[in-house]
Write a structure and sequence with these properties.
This protein is low in regular secondary structure and 158 residues long. Helices cover 5% and strands 0% of the residues.
Length: 158
């Protein structure tokens, strides 16, 4: 993956939508509040990045690395995160309505008070995830691994 400098990252983020940042190593970036609606970030690396309040609606984040990223209050409705890695990510209070998380690794992620209405989590790894007070109305959890996950009601899934 290419690793742009901080100045190059700032310039990339100023381009008009939709951005194509696929395959880039942005793990050192801190684009908190960035507008990445409809962006293409397929296979990009934003592990450990600060994306608090970022807008990622309709973005394609398939195969993306977002381990330990801060996505608190991020707006990600209708985004595609198929086979993405979000281990240990903070998605508290994030909006992920109608998001595709098929086969995503969400182990240890924090979804406290997140909105996952109509989200597709089929086959996702949610081992040890925190879903306390998350809204999972009409979410698809078919074949999802919820072992040791904290459920919306505070119970621990066995």
């Amino acid at each position: 993956m290419a690793h742009p400098t901080e100045a190059e990252i700032r310039a990339l983020l100023k381009r008009p939508a939709p951005l194509d940042l696929s395959g880039l190593d942005l793990s050192q970036a801190n684009p908190a509040g960035a507008d990445l609606d409809r962006a293409y970030l397929i296979g990009a690396n934003l592990s450990g990045a600060d994306l608090r309040g970022a807008r990622l609606r309709g973005a394609d984040l398939s195969l993306m690395l977002l381990s330990d990223a801060n996505l608190h209050r991020a707006h990600m409705s209708t985004a595609t995160l198929t086979s993405a890695t979000l281990t240990g990510a903070d998605l508290s209070c994030a909006t992920l309505n109608e998001t595709l998380l098929i086969g995503a690794d969400l182990s240890g992620a924090n979804f406290e008070e997140a909105f996952l209405v109509l989200a597709n989590l089929r086959g996702a790894n949610l081992r040890g995830a925190n879903l306390y007070h998350a809204n999972l109305s009409k979410a698809n959890l078919q074949d999802a691994d919820l072992k040791a996950a904290t459920m919306p009601d505070g119970s621990i899934h066995t």
